[in-house]
Design goal:
An 8-stranded parallel β-barrel has the order 1-2-3-4-5-6-7-8, surrounded by 7 helices. The protein is an alpha/beta fold. The N and C termini lie close together (about 10 Å). The longest helix is centred in the middle third of the chain and has 20 residues. It has 9 helices and 8 strands. It has one domain: TIM Barrel (Alpha-Beta Barrel), CATH 3.20.20.150.
Length: about 270
């Protein structure tokens, strides 16, 4: 099991400093939110991409993945009733994969509840097919055979109204039927939407390609009351070899201390579960 830090917690810092801090604390990787570089992924410059690759090489901290994919750009919606909007959004999603490949990432997290929301008058089945089509297209970008497209079930509290739990996302991944399409589970959402989050991890099994760690208070592990030992035990039970990324939604604490306590808490939870 490896540990990553979602970089928006340090978005005020230059990218080199973000990698240096992650290395000093002991993270294996950073997970990059494209909006921390530019609102539109196509406008992220070659210089910015090279700086990420160089910082990763200099520190030994991988640029493991990308997330918060549709924060920033406007006018995009994966399940919009307008086919032109859907086509534009699907093409943008493919450009996100290309960006991930260019910085050396190996996965993306597809959450973005606002840009996948089921609009009035649209059926669940319509949303299902449109979303599935976009995810399949992303997974089949040239050169992305080993790049994981991870679909995230989300809680209503994230303003989500489509794809809430592992049952739905596992079914979608099975219908897509591509080896690089899988599930990401998130502690904050999973504790709200799953009847038993550790059991959901076990049931997802080999389709679990990524995991997010956050407390119900929207901070990192160790900053609230969530006990991460049952989730870490479940990950060990399925021999999970991917990244556990710390993702926060409350940015009030000092970012370095916030991340340091989070990583210490997760490592202790794994030790206690082992």
């Amino acid at each position: 099991m490896k540990f990553a830090l979602c970089n928006e917690i340090m978005k005020e810092y230059e990218i080199e400093k973000q990698f240096e801090i992650a290395a000093d604390i002991g993270f294996d990787a950073l997970e990059i939110a494209p909006f921390t570089l530019n609102d539109w992924v196509q406008e992220i410059t070659e210089e910015q991409k090279q700086r990420i690759r160089q910082a990763s090489e200099d520190t030994g901290v991988a640029a493991a993945g990308i997330h918060w994919l549709l924060v920033g750009p406007t006018g995009l919606h994966i399940t919009d009733p307008d086919p032109e909007v859907r086509a534009k959004t699907a093409a943008y999603c493919e450009d996100l994969v290309k960006f991930g490949l260019e910085i050396g990432a190996t996965y993306e997290v597809v959450g973005s509840p606002g840009q996948r929301a089921r609009k009035d008058g649209i059926t669940y089945d319509q949303c299902w097919e449109w979303f599935k089509e976009a995810m399949a297209a992303s997974a089949q970008v040239e050169g992305a055979e080993n790049f994981k497209v991870c679909i995230e079930p989300l809680a209503v509290s994230t303003d989500n109204n489509f794809l809430f739990n592992h049952y739905e996302v596992v079914k979608m991944c099975q219908e897509i039927g591509l080896p690089n399409v899988g599930v990401i589970l998130d502690t904050y959402s999973g504790l709200q939407t799953e009847s038993d989050l550790p059991e959901a991890i076990r049931e997802t099994g080999d389709l679990l390609m990524h995991y997010h760690c956050n407390d119900l208070n929207k901070r990192a592990p160790g900053w609230g009351d969530t006990d991460f030992r049952p989730m870490m035990q479940a990950l060990l039970d399925i021999d999970y070899q991917g990244y556990c990324s710390i993702e926060v939604f409350d940015f009030e604490p000092d970012p370095e201390e916030h991340a340091r306590v989070g990583l210490e808490t997760l490592k202790q939870a794994v030790a206690d579960a082992s």
